[in-house]
Structure formats: structure tokens, C-alpha cells
Amino acid sequence: ALERTFSIIKPDAVAKNVIGAIYNRFESAGLRIVASKMLHLSKEQAEGFYAEHSERPFFGALVEFMTSGPVMVQVLEGENAVLKNREIMGATNPAEALAGTLRADYAASIDENACHGSDAPESAAREIAYFFSDEEICPRTR
Ligand code: CMP
């Protein structure tokens, strides 16, 4: 099905200057970028985005890291976009990520793991709405 998913290029990957390399992976896999912006997340924005993890032991470190520098947030559109983006990213822990995935190539650890992607269409809708208004999303017909 034609889907949308939400993606973050995290502060570690922005600092490595690989935004374009990562966009190339998305585009080469047939995903289209239909919204995009650079943000330096506030503590409140990061805590709200990751609210489901608020009781996990890594929550403080996660918020600290995600606010440590600018991120790129984007909406990706395409056939099976949610799963396709997860395949492009690889496993959350780069030690378990398959060769050729973003995490294998760019992530240093499970905490600094280069990118985020929605895990299901329902979370994608929630995450997209957290960062983008409808007017900021440009459906691509060609
Ligand atoms: P992300 O997809 O952005 O969602 C939550 C993040 O928490 C995750 O990627 C990891 O970078 C980070 N994290 C740190 N430790 C863990 C863990 N044990 N399990 C899951 N996520 C973790």
C-alpha cells in the first residue's frame, strides 16, 4: 500500500555531514521526501516525542542526545514506506544491523544510532503530526 512514514536524521549523523548520503538511500529505494526541515529540538519537544519511553532507563540519555545538536525531520512516501524505511535503517542496535544499512554504516552505538523511523503506520501518523502541519506536506504525483 502507498504509505507515509516519519524519519529523523539524528544529531550524530548530522554532525557526520551525511544528510545527503542518507537522503540518497531513501530515494534510491524508491521513497519520496514529501516534507523536510532542520530543527534543534528543545527538551520539551524531545520528551514529548519519546513520551512512550519515559519510564525506560535510557530516557534521560535519549533526550540529552536528541537535543545535543540539530536534526533533520522528514516525511517519506512510497509503497510500504514504514517497513521499507526500517529495512534501510537496520536494527536499532548497530551491532545487530545488517551490512549496508544506515545503522551499520553510520551509527556508533544503540544510543547514538544515526536515525529514527516509525515502527507502524499508526505511529507514523502520530509522529508526522507531531512535527508537520498538513500545509507543510507536499504529496508527490510525479
Ligand atoms: P529510536 O528509534 O529513536 O527510538 C528510541 C531510541 O532509544 C532508540 O532509537 C535508541 O536510539 C534509544 N535506545 C537506547 N537504548 C535502547 C534500548 N535498550 N532499546 C531501545 N532503544 C534504545
From TrEMBL:
Listed InterPro entries: NDK-like_dom, NDK-like_dom_sf, Nucleoside_diP_kinase, Nucleoside_diP_kinase_AS
EC number: 2.7.4.6
GO molecular function: nucleoside diphosphate kinase activity
Binding, ATP: 10, 58, 86, 92, 103, 113
Entry keyword Transferase: yes
PROSITE patterns in the cross-refs: NDPK (PS00469), NDPK_LIKE (PS51374)
Ranges where the Nucleoside diphosphate kinase-like domain occurs: 2-139
Record key words, sorted: ATP-binding, Cytoplasm, Kinase, Magnesium, Metal-binding, Nucleotide metabolism, Nucleotide-binding, Phosphoprotein, Transferase
Parts forming coiled coils: none
Active site: 116 (pros-phosphohistidine intermediate)
Compartments, as annotated in UniProt: Cytoplasm
Highest taxon listed in the record's lineage: Bacteria
The keyword Protein transport belongs to this UniProt entry's keyword annotation: no
Reaction(s) the record says it catalyses: a 2'-deoxyribonucleoside 5'-diphosphate + ATP = a 2'-deoxyribonucleoside 5'-triphosphate + ADP; a ribonucleoside 5'-diphosphate + ATP = a ribonucleoside 5'-triphosphate + ADP
Family matches, as Gene3D superfamilies: Nucleoside diphosphate kinase-like domain (3.30.70.141)
Family per similarity comment: Belongs to the NDK family.
Subunit structure comment from the entry: Homotetramer.
HAMAP family attached to this UniProt entry: NDP_kinase (MF_00451)
Name by which UniProt lists this protein: Nucleoside diphosphate kinase
Organism placement in taxonomy: Bacteria, Pseudomonadati, Pseudomonadota, Gammaproteobacteria, Alteromonadales
